[in-house]
User: What shape does this take?
Amino acid sequence: MPTTLNSIAKQGENGAAMMPIIQGVGRAAIEIAAVLRGAVFRGVLGGAGSENVQGEQQQKLDVLSDEIFLEEMRSTGFVCAVGSEEQEELLVIDEYAHADYVVLTDPLDGSSNLDVDGPVGTIFSVVKRKTANSDCPHVSDTLQSGRNVIAAGYVLYGPATMLVCSVGDGVHGYTFNPSAARFELSHANIRIPAKGGYYSVNEANKDKWLDNMGANLDRMKDETGLGMRYVGAMVADMHRTLLKGGVFLYPADEKNANGKLRLLYEAIPMGFVMEQAGGKSMSKGINVLDIEPEELHQRVPVYLGAAANVDSLLG
Ligand code: FDP
Assistant: This one.
């Protein structure tokens, strides 16, 4: 019998509590993958004519994925609120406002790849609320460092749909089996290779990077001899880095003094997964998981990958 998402219940001390939420992520992933496959026929490619809180153009698929994700979190009955890249404010799930968990998500990451049929993803993390269960959940519930994350992971919508996640007991990858209509364990206990792989960055921005990163990257390239791959969707670039080794970075630059990627629903979930897989995630001189968040949509520079590569880059 294949191992399904139910096996999460047996992982570590948080597996049983996290299983219904991760199953909810799995259901959302199946729906989002189906919408992505049929998008061109349903006329849902292209802009939604709206902007998200960061002033970025929302795609119709960003909005649809956000709705699907929220609905599946609601259906678990264990989530009191969702903080999403696509929503300015924290979304409180009224029926379950007493529940224990808050979920942070980028429901459709890398959406600029959509028009060219490139890979995209969903990123999520789960924390326990800080406010009393009798109170209405508040944005302060989301402002917790990566050390408080209970579960995190991502879904990659590539040739196959994969859900890669951790409940603090290693990283495990589940691939959607279309014949059985379920996720099945395909990559048990993923560990990032200590050597080899690729560096992954939008090198076109090199002249504008802050913090001497251009020179640092050149030095790392000399030291490691790594080749380069860049999809431009964090989930796809992270997934390759996790499986093949190397380092993914999005430094601060003249345009984005705090980097581009969002702390709570991009950097922290990926940092959590990376650390659980034996790798390392850094921001401005601090481990990503040690940053104390100040805002829901805060941005940070990000360097994640095999520890030796991250050290060589920041050295
Ligand atoms: P996108 O803007 O397409 O949503 O989350 C932002 C993100 O993608 C990441 O997935 C990706 O790593 C990065 O931006 C790509 O940015 P650049 O186009 O500046 O390289």
